[in-house]
Every structure is written in structure tokens, then in C-alpha cells.
Amino acid sequence: MKSLIKVSNINTNNDVISIREAISNNEGVIACEVNMLKKEVSIVYDDRSITIEDITNSIEEKGYSVI
Questions:
Q1: Which pLDDT score is estimated for 37?
Q2: Dihedral sign, CA of 55, 61, 62, 65?
Q3: Centroid of chain to Cα 20
Q4: Where is 7: in which H helix or E strand?
Q5: Cα–Cα distance for residue pair 45/36, rounded to 1 Å
Q6: Is residue 28 within 8 Å of 49, Cβ to Cβ?
Q7: Strand 2-6 relative to strand 40-45, pairing
Q8: pTM for the whole structure
Q9: What sign has the CA pseudo-torsion 67, 32, 17, 61?
């Protein structure tokens, strides 16, 4: 499954690293790409292992605002 998540407060390279780490710590995530300019996170994941809500929660737990 592939999803695109909008995150309103990606502003620095540290934000990109933090979000990437938060997502990749989840089992079932195959790949992720964080685009700071578009404020988007593109994720490829196995929807039998993890839901998009779980991924969204892991981003929000780091203090980021998912739109």
C-alpha cells in the first residue's frame, strides 16, 4: 500500500530526520520519503502489518501536525 501524508510543520532537515526515524521504527513500513518543500511524506507499507493510522500516530507522537 502507498499513502501520502501532509505534515504542516516540516521546516528543517532535523524535522525530516525525526519523521523518517519515527516512521521507519514501525514494523511493516517498506519505504518512506519526506519532502520538506511540499510538506509531504510518501510511505510504502504492508497494510497487513500496520495501518495508516498507526503511522500517523507515530508522526504525531514526535510533535508534528498531520493534516
A1: 97
A2: positive
A3: 6
A4: none
A5: 20
A6: yes
A7: antiparallel
A8: 0.93
A9: positive
For residue 63, give the nearest of 5, 3, 12, 10 by alpha carbon: 10
pLDDT per position as a tens digit, 19-67: 999 999 999 999 999 999 999 999 999 999 999 999 999 999 999 999 9
d(CA 40, CA 33): 8
DSSP, residue by residue, 19-45: HHHHHHTSTTEEEEEEETTTTEEEEEE
Dihedral, CA of residue 28, residue 23, residue 30 and residue 43, to nearest 10: 120
Scan for cell 511493516, then name that residue: 28
Specify which residues 15 forms β-bridges with: none
> What's at 47, amino acid-wise?
D
